[in-house]
Amino acid sequence: MATFLYRLGRGSYRLRWLVLAVWVLVVAGVGAAAATLQQETNPEFVLPGTESQEAFDLLEERFPEMDADGGSAQIVIQSENGEPLTAESNTAAVDALAAVMADSPQIASVTSPLATAPDGTPIGMLSAEDQTIGVMQVAYSEPSMELDEETIDYLEDAVADAEDSGIRVEVGGDVLQAIPETSATELIGIGVALVVLIITFGALLAAGLPIITAVLGVMLTTAGILAATSFMNVSESTGTLASMIGLAVGIDYALFILSRYRSELAKDGRVEDRAARADAMGRAVGTAGSAVFFAGLTVIVALLGLSVVNIPFLTEMAVAAAVTVLIAVVIAVTLLPAFAGFAGKRIFTGRQRRRIAAGVHGTKPNGGKRWAGFVTRHPILVALVGIVGLGALAYPATDLELGLPDAGSSGEETTQRQAYDLISDGFGEGFNGQLMLVGDLHDGVDAATAAADVTTALGDVDGIAVIGQAVPNEAGDTLLVTVIPETAPAAEATNQLVHDIRGVLADDADADWAVTGATALNIDISDNLNDALLPYMLIVVGLAALILLLVFRSLLVPVMATLGFMLSVFAALGALVAVFQWGWGAELFNVDQPGPIMSMMPILMIGLVFGLAMDYQIFLVTRVREAYVHGADPKTAIVEGYGHSSRVVVAAALIMISVFAAFIFSAESLIASMGFALAAAVVFDAFVVRMAIIPAVMALVGRGAWWIPKWLDRILPNVDVEGERLQRHLATDAPEDERELVGASK
Question: Which residues contact 290 (CB under 8 A, 6 or more apart)?
Fold first, then answer.
């Protein structure tokens, strides 16, 4: 591996114009595909194999007039003069709003809160106590994410005009999801990353190269996602996650290779020699590039493992992010060397080149060596402090509550939250999370009989506020029953209610019943995620442990890496609970409404954090192993390895933290919580686990850290991450010009 990557890096440096031309063609091709094939983002949310999805499919088939997949809005109206909405002073405004909405583009139906049946029976939603709050039900003919901007603008204008007529109007429902969110979070992360890189390299040109290559990788993935919208449904969050991961690993991977390249050049002292620069790049890609390859492979395995959850939109997000990581690796080992070739000796500043020529560049005391020396002298103290500290941070995770957000978790100033609160005040919290029961009647069963039976059965279930009238379809073979819970959609009691209803109706003799609705769908998502968590961990940890076994040829190092990762994850989950669930520092971290943690966060964190944690494990410990296989004793190898790599790992961690932390300010709760959790996980993993606990434990076990059974050592392929075989190749098998360069560098 190292020898192949050496040739690839050296060749990319020397043939930089050819490499650049190939990448220009790739970028142009992908860009043209995106411009030609791009369609509107159209995520079709499905949850295969769940009861809520089966009910939704049956509803769509048997009740086509309901247009079940169309967007919806709940326009909540409140009287501001204290009189009922049925009073003459308010009816004109309500009727005018209903008439205006009936003319909206892409409209399917509008039900006014003042609507009545032909016999005069009220059918609209009015608060029973004083009738000062009403809900206008609006259904659209297209899914919410396919609504035109004109339709959204029409709704906003209609609401504004209605408020001018003397009533308060707030809007809930999924239709507002179609309003695009603008964000500059990526720019914040890039800005901080650039500052860190300038401090690390001390040269603006060198600092800019990782930014350029990372942004290019993200742009390629984004363009690919846009082109893919012509062939599949794509969630809007897909591109966000890809950008978050792509920027972080893209900058880090380029940073590691470029740092090794500058280190090789400074060691040789021949910055002015073009051939020496090409050879230094080859050695950098052959060694640091090997670590990048296996680190990227680990991240990709962790991401693709998310497919076991069997939630299509989560799989899409994971695949897009995995492709971004793959592109980042390829760019780092090909395009980055080409860019370095164009930069030439300017990869160092003039002052740095003069110091290299004088042999004094990089001779200052190394903080990494001093820290590693302290750790190896006091390994028990360092390990205990690190483990106990992370254990304390993990404690809040014992109170972890999982759920999916609803409008009740939105910011108090948003119209969605205002609509949610008004409905709760006027009708009860359960009206924000109505359940739909769909019954497929058995042959020969009368719809009226089945309706009476199901109403009786539901009457024995605790937690139901209202049981709606059972409605048959035109064919008379299906029943639809609306159930209103007593509690809020995200409440644990509502979760239990859904399971209780399913249990009661499981043995119904009249029909096969299924429960659906947004609340039931969220519960099924949470159940799917919980069921998939253990298989996912076994698959991902098993495959990643195998990769680490190949890289380090050790049994203990992969075990230490995995246990350290678990500490990081639980500590990050604890911090997530403390901030996003308990509300500690809520204002500081842009948390509008503390509440349950999103149900997909644990499995997403496990996948992403495991991959990123293994990055640092590979980058740090490969340099330790490199020193060890070249003859250093275990403690000296730790000091030497950390002396070489800790500075750049710290810089890489700070960059990742800044990229992730910038997403905390996203208005989308999933992205904000994910940004916080990943930033916290990198802090704990990079600075506590990898920089303290791992070297402390390695110092305690000594040579045992590198023990592997001889039979296993014989059958494992030698991937040569530390470059031992590469050195032999350069000394014996390489062409004459390469051997001369190696001899000159010694």
Answer: 1, 2, 5, 622, 719, 720, 721, 723
